[in-house]
Design goal:
mainly beta, two-stranded antiparallel sheet, 0% helix
Length: 72
């Protein structure tokens, strides 16, 4: 368990994180509130491997010996 503190930054609140190597500059994290509203879960945000352009792959014929003119 990691203990963090809230600090004031201008008109917003921020989290003061410990310098123990768990957090690095540029990382993205999600703060998820618990169902009781008393605590939060902090988890690293992962990139969605299914998002973005799909690689184009050529589809081979399933039956290469069938003539297309024979199929109605």
């Amino acid at each position: 368990m990691i203990e963090v503190k809230t600090v004031s930054r201008g008109n917003s609140l921020a989290l003061s994180l410990p310098k123990n190597g768990h957090f690095k500059k540029g990382q993205r994290w999600l703060l998820i509130p618990s169902s009781d509203g008393e605590s939060y879960t902090l988890i690293p945000r992962l990139e969605n491997p299914y998002a973005g352009p799909k690689p184009k792959q050529s589809m081979s014929e399933e039956w290469p010996d069938v003539d297309r003119n024979e199929v109605e």
